[in-house]
Amino acid sequence: MPLKPGKIPPDLLKLALEKLKVSSEDILVGPKYGVDGAVVKVKNPLLALTSDPITFTSKDSVFYLMACNINDLISMGAKPLYLSVNLLFYEGVTEEEVLNTFEELGFYSKKFNVPVITGHTEVTPGLKSTILSGFMVGQVVKEVSPEKVRVGDVIVQVKGVAIEGTSIISREKQDELAKVFGEPFVKRCKDFLYEPGICLFDVGVKLIENYDIRNLHDPTEGGIVTALFESLQASGLGAFIDGDKIIVYSETKILSEYYRIDPLGLIASGSLIVYTEKREAERICSDLGKENIPAEIIGEVREKEAGILIKKQHTLKELTPYERDQILEVL
Q1: Distance CA 253, CA 244 (A)
Q2: Which of 19-23, 171-175, 204-208 has the lowest mean pLDDT?
Q3: Which residues lie below 8 Å from residue 279, measured CB to CB, with a gap of 6+?
Q4: Looking at CB atoms within 10 Å, which of 50, 103, 180, 325 has the fewest?
Q5: Are 210 and 240 in a shared domain?
Q6: Structure confidence by residue, pLDDT tens digits, 269-288
Q7: What does the alpha-carbon distance between residue 102 and residue 262 come to, in Å, rounded to a whole number?
Q8: Could you write out the DSSP letters of every residue in 118-165?
C-alpha cells in the first residue's frame, strides 16, 4: 500500500526496527520506537566521524551508503562502530519497500558489524526517489594524517582501479557492451561493485590494525591520479609516481580502450592509497599478495620542490588532477 507524506505508521515502523536489533553491552540505548537518539559507551577517547548521502535510485543504495561511510572512516585510520541513518522515503513508497530497506540495513550492519543505532524516517512530500543519509562513528585505531608523511616514504596502491567506474559503466551501457563483448563480460564488470568490491572494510581494518601507516586516502571522483594529487598537496610534498606500476584491472582496461578514456581518471572507490616507510610497504604488499589482494609500490615521496611527477611509458610529466571524472565522457 502506498504511504502518504508524514511519519511512517507506528506498526510498520516497529516491524521495520525489529530488523535492526543488535546486542552489545556498549549500546545502552539503541533503535527503538519512541526513542529519538542513542546512548553508547566510548572506550577510546579518539573518535572519527563522517557523513555521506545516497541520492540516486538503486537497488544497491544501502550497500553504497555503508561502503561510502566505511571508506571515509578507514581513510582516517578508524574502525567503523555505529551508523545513524536518515531515511527520506519518496511519496507513494510502499510498505514492502520500507521493510526491504530496513532488511538491507540489518543485513549490512551485521555483515560489517556496524550497528544502526538511531536515525529518522519519514515519507517526504515531493521526493521522486528515496534519499538515504548516513552519519557514521568510528574508533581511531591508527592516527594517520597528511602531516605524518615524510620525504623518502613510499606510496602503495591496494586493490586496482577503477572498480566503481567499471561497475557503473557496465550497468549503464550493458546492452551496447553485451553486443560487443558478450553477456559474461558485462556481468563480471557489473559485479565489480561487490567483487573486487568498492567497500574497504576488510582490507582497511587489516591495514590499520597491523601496520605502521603514515596516511591513507581512498580514490573516488577523478580517479587515482586526482587522489594522489590531493593527498600529496595536503602533505605539502612532492613525489615520483610510476604510472606503469599502477594496478588496473583487465576489465577496466578493455572498457577504457573501447570508450577511449583514461582509467587513471575514472571513479575509483574500492582502491586505497597508503603512505608508509619502504620496509613496511614491502611487508604490506607481501602479506596482501598471499591473500590474493593486489598491492603495489607505485611511487616515492620527495621534497615539495621536486614537484609531483608521473612516468608513463618512458614519458615523465607533471601529474595533474582531472577536473571532470572520465566517466562523464561515457555517460
Answers
A1: 13
A2: 19-23
A3: none
A4: 180
A5: yes
A6: 999 999 999 999 999 999 99
A7: 38
A8: EEEEEEETT-SS-EEEEEEEEEESS---GGG--TT-EEEEES-BTHHH
pLDDT of residue 253: 97
- What pLDDT is stored for residue 56 in this prediction? 72
102 and 206 both lie in a single domain: no
The DSSP call for residue 19 is G
CA atoms within 13 A on the CB side of 311: 10
Confirm whether 4 is domain-assigned. Answer: no
- Cβ contact 239:308 at 8 Å: yes
Question: Which residue's C-alpha cell is 580502450?
Answer: 257
Domain count, the chain: 2
- Integer Cα distance of 189 and 183 in angstroms: 10
Nearest-CA neighbor of 158 among 256, 75, 257? Answer: 75
- Look up residue 224 and give its three cell numbers: 587515482
Give exposure, 218-255, as e/b (b: 16+ Cβ within 10 Å): bbbbbbbbbbbbbbbeebebbbbbbbeebbbbebbebb
pLDDT per residue as tens digits for the range 78-132: 999 999 999 999 999 999 999 999 999 999 999 999 999 999 999 999 998 999 9
Contact 209, 216 (CB under 8 A): no
- Cα 243 to its chain centre, rounded Å, is 23
Q: Give CA–CA dist 153/13, Å, rounded.
A: 52
| Shared-domain flag, residues 162 and 281 | yes
Q: Which domain holds residue 234?
A: 146-329
**One-character DSSP codes across 234-248:** HHT-EEEEEGGGS-B
**Domain identity same for 221 and 173:** yes
Q: What is the tens place of the pLDDT at every residue in 38-51?
A: 777 887 778 999 99
pTM for this entry: 0.90
Residues 156, 233 within the same domain: yes
